[in-house]
Amino acid sequence: MMRQLFTHQLSLDHVPIEDIQLDLNSRDPFVAFLFGIQSILTNNAACKKLRELLKTHNPKVSKHRGRRV
């Protein structure tokens, strides 16, 4: 079974990712991380490349517990 990486269908109570305003003057490193994720998910080519990379990444995981072996 393949995990669903990202759902493009929004619910009524969700804000689109590209409409989220981040404080770019913040010194918090988490804001920079969120900005990077936002820019990847709003760029179709980058999002497609990320999906392909995630499909090839296959760590050894226990199928019963979902944890690393």
Strand content: under 5%
Please estimate the helix content: 25-40%
Q: Give start-end ranges of low-pLDDT stretches.
A: none
What's the average pLDDT? 81
From the helix content, strand content and strand pairing, which structural class follows?
A: mainly alpha
Could you tell me the radius of gyration in angstroms? 16 Å
> What order do the helices and strands follow?
HH
What characterizes the major β-sheet? Answer: none
User: Quick one: overall form?
Assistant: extended
Number of strands: 0
What does this structure look like?
With 69 residues, the protein is mainly α. 39% of the residues lie in helices and 0% in strands. The chain contains two helices and no strands. It has helices at 29-42, 44-56. The protein starts with 28 loop residues before the first helix and ends in a 13-residue tail after the last helix. The relative contact order is 0.11.
Characteristics:
69 residues; mainly alpha; 2 helices; 39% helix; 0% strand
Q: What's the layout of helices and strands?
A:
Elements: H1 29-42, H2 44-56
Précis, in short:
This protein is mostly helical and 69 residues long. It is built from two helices and no strands.
